[in-house]
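Page 47, continued from p. 46.
Same chain as before, 324 aa.
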Amino acid sequence: MKPYLAVSVLSLIAAVLPLQAGQNPFAGRWALTLEDGRTGWLGVEEKESGLTGALMWGTGSVLPVSKIELQGDTLLVERPVASRGGESPTLKVVARRDSDGLKLESSILKLNGETEAGPRAEGRDSGPLPPTPDLAKVKYGTPEPLLDDDFPDKWTLVEGKEESGWTLRGGILSNRVVKEKGRRFGNVRTRAEYEDFRLTTDVRTLEGSNSGIYLRGRYEIQIAETFGKPLDSHNMGALYSRIVPAVAAEKPVGEWQKLEITLVDKHVTVVLNGQTLINNQPVLGCTGGALQSDESQPGPIMLQGDHTNIDYRNMVLQPVKKRD
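Result:
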């Protein structure tokens, strides 16, 4: 995903505290589904100083809202469409509660003052996060190699109408895209779906690489050429736009790097080249480009291939064994 504005971990954690008696009825974590099929996420908290929140709408980053207020039974939310420096159009979202969750409408306030209607959406309460798991007690099942000779049977393009830049040769899965008008290359996903697991892989970034590994097809671990760059929630090994790596552990472009990702009870751990970037931290919701936002469901491993070139090898998944 393209980098926009890094969101502080503290502000996002604040946005997902469980609903307490007497709190704003919009408080909590909301998994959004837009009418055009894209996903979103809204986090709202009521503090003594007023409401705070963060929003992801269809694609891109989770961004803190610039305005949020309750007007009767309606929640009004505003945030920049994107933050790349300079002025940005404003995304406006109006949310209402019903018996099933939220009904949302959107519009874009352009820089010239014109307003453009946007997609509607529905929101479902994600509920409280599970307690932090004790990873020392987690047991794993039989390792499943994902990049073996059965690759064509195990993986498929997410959108069949897009071109595939993916090839597997000599155990190396490579994505090569051509930047030409009218050509779009696709993401690839496992046909199988998974719940909790540990995934290990080697990855090799190339010049300008910008890819990602989606856990359950929902939470993107950023894969990008960010060697030597300041820590950011869009760097290699970050939970995209949500969690900033604790350290910079990237290797230079063209070198193989070892990545280990563990997802258990909606908590994620990421180790890159032997250094822990994310240590058993909560995953608050989906990231831009997710296949769907419902956090109660299993999902595939998805590799982002619509941006740039990237190489993977030795990808192995170990499912977590069922626990009492």
